[in-house]
Amino acid sequence: PDTPLRPIVAAIHALATEVSKFLNDLLAPIFLRVARQTTFINGIDLVRALEKHAANGHLKPTTLFITFDVENLYTMIPRQGVLEVLLRFLERNLRNNKIGTLRIDDIMRMARLVLDTNIFAYENKYYRQIRGGAMGSVFT
Question: What is the pTM of this model?
Answer without folding.
Answer: 0.74
